[in-house]
Specification:
By secondary structure, this protein is an alpha+beta fold. Helices cover 31% and strands 29% of the residues. It has a single domain (14-234), classed as GHMP Kinase, N-terminal domain (Ribosomal Protein S5, domain 2, 2-Layer Sandwich). A hairpin with a 7-residue loop joins strand 1 (14-18) and strand 2.
């Protein structure tokens, strides 16, 4: 039995709430159980200097954790400097979103995604990717609705979920209690059509087998399919 009482292929309660940031062109408060992340999307009519004149745009992301998002207060990164972990996660978010955006259709402009972890209980990066897509789609729909662009450049959805080998068994959507003790920890980023964008998998002890990896991938596909359905429902 998992500490939460969930079955091995059961996700935590998932919530995707749009329109939570009044001033942002797109926003989403995403909750994976007790992990809560505020994601906002900002429309910017400029493009990065290194992209000027190329006829395409950019999507980038920033990620951070608030000081009391964890059990003990951490130093605010604005003062202490951004951690390597935060840099790695924000790059993951940016890559994940760019995989489902037609950057030429976006034109010479960019969308800036901010993901701020309000409360952490494992899986902050996967929740951030999932909520960031909702904020991105919200932003692009705003741009079409206001006549800024003619068509939505987002070509597919993308979401992410964690999986792991916990007490010798594969499990979906790890919370902190499981993530901190897992024998294998993995994160999967998958599009709505089932395409794989990124896989991060690490053995914390004994190496994992081909069969165990296949089981984790199967769980991730099942989890992300459910997340894609929830993302779609957020706009209905």
């Amino acid at each position: 039995m998992r500490p939460s009482g969930r079955s091995f292929n059961e996700m935590r309660a998932v919530s995707l709430e749009r329109g939570v940031a009044r001033h942002a062109e797109g926003s989403c408060l995403v909750k994976f159980g007790d992990t809560h992340v505020l994601c906002t999307a900002t429309w910017d009519e400029t493009t990065p200097p290194w992209l000027r004149g190329q006829g395409r745009g950019w999507v980038t992301a920033e990620y951070g954790m608030l000081p009391r998002s964890t059990h003990q207060r951490m130093k605010r990164e604005a003062k202490a400097g951004q951690s390597g972990r935060s840099q790695e996660i924000q790059r993951l978010i940016g890559r994940s979103l760019r995989a489902v955006v037609d950057l030429k259709a976006l034109g010479e402009r960019q969308i800036l995604i901010d993901c701020d972890v309000l409360q952490a209980d494992g899986g902050t990066r996967t929740a951030a990717v999932t909520g960031a897509w909702v904020a991105l789609e919200d932003c692009c729909r705003w741009a079409v609705r206001d006549g800024v662009i003619a068509a939505n450049p987002v070509v597919d959805s993308v979401s992410a979920v964690s999986c792991g080998i916990v007490n010798g068994a594969p499990a979906l959507d790890l919370d902190y209690a499981e993530d901190s003790t897992a024998q294998t920890d993995a994160n999967f980023v998958i599009t709505g059509r089932g395409g794989l964008v990124e896989i991060q998998a690490t053995a914390e002890g004994a190496p994992f087998s081909d069969e165990q990896f296949a089981a984790l991938l199967s769980l991730a596909k099942e989890g992300c399919a459910g997340l894609a359905a929830r993302q779609k429902a957020a706009f209905e």
